[in-house]
Fold Fibronectin type-II domain-containing protein.
Amino acid sequence: NDVSCDVVSYQSNQIYCQTKNAAPHVIISSNGVHPTYGSGFAWSPQFATVQQGAIVEWQWSSSALLTTLAYKVQQAINGYSTTPQTGGFDSGNATASGSFSYQFQNVGTYYYWTPAVDQSGLIVMRGAINVVAAQPRTLTVKVSSGSFTAQSCAFPFPFNSVTYSACTSTNDTQSWCSPTSTYNRQRLYCTPTASVPSSTCGSSSLISPSSCSQTVPSNVLQFLFTPCTIGTVRSISPVYGPAGTSITITGTDFSTTTCENIVLIGSSYKCPITSATSTQITCQIGTSSSLNAKSIQSFNVIRDRQGTLSNDGLIQFQFQAKITNVSPLQGSTAGGTQITITGDGFIPSDTRVIVGSIEYTSFATITYSQIQFITQQPPSDYIDHLIPITILVGENSAICSSVSCNFTWAQSVTPYLVSVNPTSINGPQTLTLMGQNLATSNSITTADIHVTIGGEQCNVTSVSNSSIICDIGNIQVGDYSVVASID
């Protein structure tokens, strides 16, 4: 029906998939019409009735004519009060556009309000969510590939005055069924039922709908989404952090067998679990998780072979990118220093690289764990000062876990030349260039030094911190600048 099941694996006679949340997703927008002030001053719908587990999403934006409006959503103690409900939902600071989601797990009426949306402070908006008990849903399983939908048996179906609720070999050499509820001579041949893949954890326990006075559908092509409680996630702490963060999850009916619990952050990252009791799970985010710090991530706990536990409200986690090392921390005032930033969480398409006010994004090579770029010549007021390095993923700054996340264009390490000898030649010649900071590191070799004269390469044969010796061939007559660079 309308609930997708993500394919995990498949064979010619079997598909293994994982169901999505079957609870409805309700959208409430800010484009409702107020009887006095018109469009944009009321929530639509203002009142909504939803089942337990439903996710309600408020969406708002200002029109071109009403650009000064700002919205937020805050739970109130009743339908006319401005007093916030203790522990209730709150979207945060008012903004001109945005959205906020909350998952309702408990039956009851929830009132909310939006403080004055206009600059004059006169127009507030209100609404209410009525949460009723969740009902089981029995849905028919359908399989499609591209524009093709797989045929399926229509149970029950009649044949020769007998009604069949399973495949039969009557009047045939193979097991078959009818694809329609009225037999029309078309037959689908049934393959033996494949065994259910064994759990990697060895789990054997399944949900028992009978505990909620429900029954598994007799139709083998139907699936029961049941509100039977298999556990609840109450809270997580912390609610933000980078790779290496240990998250403590509190709730009910967790499995004490660690591998039977799955902690899912975002759509696909399984946070490695370090400990588990019936009321608390701890997991630690690893490096190279592929989580995106651009946006807040959904957070769910899954019981192996049973499904996703309910969340007490909409529980989310803000993953943070982090910088673990910057090298080098200082370089030439003329620019040309290659900076390498190592860390975690740098999504190439969403990451910006800024040093002071200079943006390097378009010049940087970015992977999930490393950023490299070459510095430009800085403004004069940057020289010999600590200039902050800012890494943004979306609008969120990477946290600094390095000794320093600053860079200095330092005169003390800037290599420079003071003389060349001889100053004139009439053929191939060995030149001696004198200067300072030419080889500040023992790792610098002649291969790291590049000298050109009039565009012609001068082959470097020796280098020290104060001199470079190179051989130049024939060049055209003229006065030329000597240009040197160090990798």
Observations:
- Residues 357 and 387 are 9 Å apart (CA to CA).
